[in-house]
Amino acid sequence: MTDVSSARVATYLRDAILGGDLRPGDRIRQEEVAERFGASRLPVREALRTLEAEGLAESEPHKGARVPRLSQHEVEVIYEMRERLEPLALVESLPQLGEVDHDRLEEVQQRIEANEDLEKFLDLDREFHMLTYSGCHIDPLSSMVTRLWNSTQHYRRAYVALGGRSRMWVVNSEHRLILDAVRRRDAQDAERFLAGHIRRTRIELSHHPEVFE
Asked: Is the pTM of this model over 0.70?
């Protein structure tokens, strides 16, 4: 057995879940993960506890761990939670973001606008929004925002795949409005634009029940 840290195992599983290699409902078999790393099950169990706290795994009695599978209603409620919590995180973050952060946001948005790849878009979109929240130092709020993003990653991927490039102009327009409000440190506009951005995704997802099958 090799000495493998739980953090390394957690990174491997997190990437597999957020990247779509492990999908909602898939089992996470401790023995297979341990064998992959040539390790005992202890760091795997510790990694799974970390992922449960992040909303990326859940344990079932006598069945082990799996990637959570959400119903359409559960996803709608989570998006409603995001509509309320993320604008709050953004307002908390705004005063702490400086010109360097604004320039980095501009650079990320330019990469989003030039991008043609679905997986890359998901990474860049997450980077954009998490950077806007990076000045929020209220840990319970920041942790909850990250957890809600993690739990809806699969459904965001399916939604973006349905819309393809045809809907990207809407995303880019909304990002530009949010970025403008961030630069101006206008909390009211930032809240309004972000809530509308999340709400639109929630409503459009509700028109595609096949995403949840």
From this structure: yes
